[in-house]
Write a structure and sequence with these properties.
This protein has nine helices and eleven strands. With about 425 residues, it is an alpha+beta fold. It has three domains: about 5-135, no CATH class; about 195-280, Helix Hairpins (Orthogonal Bundle); about 285-420, Heat Shock Protein 90, CATH 3.30.565.10. It has a five-stranded mixed beta sheet. Helix 5 (about 195-240) runs antiparallel to helix 6, helix 6 (about 250-280) packs parallel to helix 9 (about 395-405) and helix 8 runs antiparallel to helix 9. The radius of gyration is 46 Å and the shape is rod-shaped.
């Protein structure tokens, strides 16, 4: 979810709760104010009636055409002692003039005359319909919420989008940034200090990463190149030493093992050197490569290895694929995938290669469970240490694929390892 949408969503939710809380507070404030004014009126009217009743003056008509009405009842002393002298009540009363029941505010006052007789005066006045007030407030709260929500969305679309424009510019710059390539300029049309500091830190970080990447690539390339000569010299000397007829069988066995170890080191060194050259874009020569021809040629090279392990090989071609890339790297890519299929196939298993319009699919029966798709393309990662590989084959595949925009994906399906190679469609 974009930052702009997340901010709008959170403000909308917060505004909903604030509007509901404000509506409740407003409702109780209105009710309190109405009751306060009504109670003052009832107290004045009640005092007026009590004064006239105690002085023996004529009392006003109970239905005098006003909203106020009253009645007086004599009550026993026990009742007068039990209840407070004044109490306010909200109740429904029948209005004879209106011939209907309406909500009313009622004041009950207990007083005593000169003869020590107790009376209860009930004064009431019709008041507002609270249910109608609730509906009205709710309606206007909803209208207010919608107006504020629309206003906030409009403000976000204008103000926030404009304020976040430098952030979007930095995100776009990060998307265009590539290690080993020239750092693109980062231009911000903003005078906000936080954005300026962030852009400066991003630029410094990119420069440091580029320098470290170049140093690492140069180190690997130079180290691999310099190691190749002494490894070759050591191999030659051991091969000459192995020709000595005075060597014992034990010595000969140790020399052969040492030569094999050096061969493994040499292969690893060459692979690292190849990886470095790929990442440094040192394979500029490209041509239109016939993918079918490359796959068929490599398959023929692996035929003997497959046959020695009694692995069935199937090749299906339903399309003719071509790709503009370096021919040697194309051979490395598919050669490593077919070698990987051989390594991870069980004896008497099967390797199936399918060339179709979608791309190339290489599947092989699994000697174990699924590989970890998050790690298999990492350098020196080995799913099983008993395989005797350096763990660079799929890393080479991944580097070549990234160089030419090729997508290589892995899945485990029906007890088989499946690698799908998809080319960019022009």
């Amino acid at each position: 979810m974009k930052l702009l949408y997340r901010i709008t969503w959170r403000i909308s939710v917060a505004l909903l709760f604030l509007s509901a809380a404000w509506g409740m507070v407003f409702y109780f404030a209105i009710i309190n104010e109405i009751n306060d004014e009504t109670d003052d009126s009832l107290e004045d009217y009640s005092e007026f009636i009590i004064v006239r009743a105690l002085s023996g003056e004529k009392l006003p008509e109970q239905n005098n055409g006003t909203n106020n009405s009253y009645y007086i009842n004599e009550v026993p002393e026990e009742y007068a002692v039990l209840y407070p002298s004044e109490r306010f009540i909200d109740d429904e009363v029948y209005i004879y003039s209106e011939h209907e029941t309406e909500p009313a505010r009622i004041l009950k006052t207990i007083f005593r005359n000169s003869e020590n007789r107790y009376y209860e005066l009930t004064v009431l006045i019709p008041t507002i319909e609270k249910s109608d007030l609730k509906e009205t407030i709710l309606t206007w709260i909803v209208i207010l919420y919608l107006i504020l929500l629309i206003s906030i969305i409009a403000v976000n679309a204008i103000v926030l989008r404009r304020s976040l424009r430098p952030l979007y510019a930095m995100l776009d710059w990060l998307n265009r940034l590539r290690l080993g390539k020239e750092i693109p300029p980062l231009e911000l049309d903003s005078d906000i200090s936080e954005y300026k500091k962030l852009s400066e830190e991003l630029m410094r970080s990119a420069q440091r990463n580029n320098e470290m990447y170049e140093q690492q690539s140069l180190f690997i390339g130079h180290a691999s190149h310099e190691l190749q000569t002494p490894i070759a010299v050591a191999q030659n000397r051991l091969e000459l030493l192995a020709e000595d007829p005075d060597l014992s069988d034990t010595q000969m066995e140790q020399i052969v093992k040492t030569i094999r170890s050096l061969e493994d080191i040499s292969k690893l060194n060459k692979t690292l050197l190849l990886l470095t050259k790929i990442e440094n874009k040192q394979f500029p020569n490209t041509e239109i490569v016939d993918i079918n021809s490359v796959v068929c040629s490599i398959s023929e090279d692996f035929a003997e290895a497959y046959a020695s392990h009694e692995i069935e090989f199937q090749l299906s071609e339903t399309a003719h694929l071509k790709m503009e890339m370096n021919r040697m790297l194309a051979s490395v890519l598919f050669g490593n995938l077919l070698k990987n299929a051989f390594i991870h196939s069980e004896k008497h298993g099967m390797v199936a290669v399918t060339i179709s319009e979608e791309g190339v699919r290489i599947a092989n029966t699994a000697s174990s469970g699924a590989l970890n798709p998050e790690y298999i393309f990492r350098r020196f990662y080995q799913e099983s240490m008993s395989k005797g590989t350096a763990g660079l084959g799929l890393s080479l595949v991944d580097s070549i694929a990234k160089l030419y925009g090729i997508t290589v994906s892995y899945l485990f399906m029906d007890g088989m390892h499946v690698f799908d190679v998809r080319f960019q469609k022009s």
